[in-house]
Amino acid sequence: MPFERIPASRQRPPQGPPGFPPGFPSGGQPGFPPGFPPGGPSGGQQGGPPTASSNTPPSGPPPNFIPSEAQATTLSAGPGGDVSTFAIDAGAIFPCRFRFTYIWLNNGRSFWSYIVFVGRNSIAGWRYTGRRWVYFGIDLRRIRSFYCR
Question: What are phi and psi of 140, to 5 degrees?
């Protein structure tokens, strides 16, 4: 699927609720990831209806290995080798919902996650800190590559 560059003049400024990264959608229903419409999710939503597992972290730690980024789903570089102007496609990461997923960010950080929501421009779920799971949300433009099993 081709990606198009959006000129800076057409880009919206970053925004989001407190505690979430800029660009993460605001709003939503209490108890559900941001981005769900008032009244809760519907079966037609791209993120799909939440299950009991979306409100609670995984019961144990993620796999005890770190996958090679060569195994990951990655974007090829755009014109001039600039990967950061593109985003991971929501359709590509959607099958990773409710699965352990290793994520590499554009800033060089990486971590295990358990994704429970995939929106058009963002994901939400549980991020493993090395000791415990914490809820997080992130704009797809910040993800360089991912691996799910």
Answer: -60, -25
| Mean of the per-residue pLDDT values of the chain | 73
d(CA 58, CA 135): 11
Three-state DSSP state, 33:
coil
Instruction: Dump the DSSP string for 52-75.
Output: GGGSS--SS---SS---GGGSEEP
Q: How many CB atoms lie within 10 A of CB 30?
A: 5
Phi, psi of 121 (to 5 degrees): -120, 0
> What's the rounded Cα separation, in Å, for the pair 56 and 58?
7
Whole-angstrom distance, CA of residue 36 vs CA of residue 50: 10
Residue 75 near residue 86, CB atoms below 8 Å:
yes
Task: Mention every residue, 6+ apart, whose C-beta is less than 8 A from residue 85.
Answer: 5, 78
User: Is the pLDDT assigned to residue 93 strictly greater than 50?
Assistant: yes
| Measured distance CA(15)–CA(145) in Å, rounded | 23
How does pLDDT run across 24-74, given as a tens digit for each residue? Answer: 455 444 444 455 433 333 333 344 444 545 789 999 999 999 999 988 876
Copy the structure tokens of residue 62: 């993620």
User: Can you tell me the distance from the alpha carbon of 33 to that of 36, in angstroms, rounded to the nearest whole number?
Assistant: 7
